[in-house]
Amino acid sequence: MAKKLVIKTNTGERIPFLRGVLVESLARSGLSFHDAYLVAQSIRGGLGDDVEISADALKDRVASEVRKRFGETLATAYERGSAVQRQIMVRYAGEDAPFSAGLLSRSLQACAIRRDNALETAKRVQDHLRKMGEADIEHLALRQVVYEHLQQHCSQSAADRYLCWQLFRDSGLPLILLIGGITGTGKSTLTTELAYRLNIVRTQSTDMMREIVRSYLPRKKVPTLAYSSFEAWRGLTKRGAPGNDPDNDALVLGFLSQFSAVKKGLEATIYRAVKEGQDLIVDGVHVLPSRLELDIATDQAIVIPLMLVVPKRKTLAKRLKNRARDQPERPASRYIQGLDEIWALQSYLVSEAEEHDVALIVNSDIDEALHALLMQISDTIARRFPPSSR
């Protein structure tokens, strides 16, 4: 897509179109962050191949889109408060970038700072920079401003988490997140949310890996791959019913057979990301950090294993039924029939996690689970990059 510019009509000055700035402006007008993002995304796509557009024309487009989606009140609020502001540039080594309160808010949320506090802090920082009257600011000076505003208006712990994240990013080490859990624990949903907040573009599902391996390996080579993780025991050549022998459980043996088939691919994916210095999130039931060879990755990256858990059997059953409505290709009946096996598989994964000090994240509420994930990630980063090392 061609680069788009906004012309500041009163001076003719050209400034870049930034989706984050538009999101911030829409959020100030009363839209939720999610709705503001959708509008900004629509406007960006609708610009097509335009190289330039006037500020007034852009304002009209945005107001029209808000009016169509959310009505006259919010559209009027946007029109009254959406004047184009002169951009403050942040100086980095070798390049400058426009300051964006929207992007700052997202980076603060990555530090496990609650959304409302992140938005308020970003706005305070923006107001502070505008009152300074300077056209640019050095990035370490901006970091100090953000840190002090978090101290004053949020908490010392939030300020320290922010600083730890900045020290980590200065290191250049990639972040590798390994998120395990049985079907129905919300892995895909939480992975998507984490990827957005942490600005991670690479994600990989072990379910996809299993499908790839199954496509080129003959069924007789690894017969367990023909089944879902909780049914893999059906592919064992010698088996009993799951749970008959706790020391030689068919359910676990079948699952581990599948894991062995995807293990090399999973390790290769992680090593490739580490080699290229790219952040990565891997999610799936086959994420078993205790059985992966990650010594090299651990030395050259921040590797954080996490295990999602559904606390109640009834909650899991309800989620599986609800998921079937959104994903007809995954009928609930098969999962409900296999609920005993799914629940037993979670018990095994939890015991593995506890034995190897993998953090357990209870997902009873999606927002709270996301916050718990971000806190666990931030705590791990703080241990590696303590704020006292600034």
Topology diagram in text:
Elements: E1 5-7, E2 14-16, H1 19-28, H2 33-46, E3 52-54, H3 55-70, H4 72-81, E4 89-92, E5 95-98, H5 101-110, H6 115-132, E6 136-138, H7 139-153, H8 156-171, E7 175-180, H9 187-197, E8 203-205, H10 206-216, H11 250-276, E9 280-283, H12 295-300, E10 302-309, H13 313-326, H14 332-337, H15 339-355, E11 359-362, H16 366-384
Parallel strand pairs: 1-3, 4-6, 7-9, 7-10, 8-9, 10-11
Antiparallel strand pairs: 1-2, 4-5
Helix pairs in contact: 1-2, 2-3, 3-4, 5-6, 6-7, 7-8, 8-16, 9-16, 10-11
- Main beta sheet, described? 5 strands, parallel
Strand-residue proportion: 5-15%
Order of helices and strands: EEHHEHHEEHHEHHEHEHHEHEHHHEH
Global mean pLDDT? 86
CATH class of the largest domain: Alpha Beta
Helix content: 55-70%
| C-alpha geometry | globular
What descriptive keywords fit this protein?
390 residues; alpha/beta; Rossmann fold; 3 domains; five-stranded parallel β-sheet; three-stranded mixed β-sheet; 16 helices
Explained architecture:
With 390 residues, the chain is α/β, with parallel strands linked by helices. The protein folds into three domains: 1-87, no CATH class; 88-171; 175-357, P-loop containing nucleotide triphosphate hydrolases (Rossmann fold, 3-Layer(aba) Sandwich). It is 56% helix and 12% strand. The chain has 16 helices and eleven strands. It has a five-stranded parallel sheet, with helices on both faces. The chain has a three-stranded mixed sheet with strand order 2-1-3. Strand 4 and strand 5 form a beta hairpin. Helix 7 (139-153) runs antiparallel to helix 8 (156-171), helix 8 (156-171) packs across helix 16 (366-384) and helix 9 (187-197) crosses helix 16 (366-384). The mean pLDDT is 86.
